[in-house]
Amino acid sequence: MLNEKEKNVSQMQLALAIGHKAVGTISMAELCINNKHFNIEHLVKIADVLEVELADFFHGINLK
Q: What is the CA radius of gyration of the chain?
């Protein structure tokens, strides 16, 4: 998966973009801690910030 470091975007910038005031949600979702995850709305906003296509987040995922 793409990450914010490749685009020089901080976790704080992503947190603010998805409507949070702290990086906790971003870091926990990236590491799958406490069952935290990004919903589709988060992914759309993150894709916009990172200037990538939403589909880029799903490359290499095989659904059975």
A: 12
Global pTM value:
0.75
In angstroms, the Cα distances linking 10 to 40, 41, 62 are 20, 19, 29
CA angle in degrees (0–180, nearest 5) for 33-11-63: 50
pLDDT at 53: 93
Boundaries of every domain in the chain: 11-58
CA separation for the pair 10, 60 (Å, rounded)? 25
> What share of the chain has pLDDT > 70, as a percent?
91
With 0-12 CB in 10 A as exposed, 13-18 as middle and 19+ as buried, what is 63? exposed
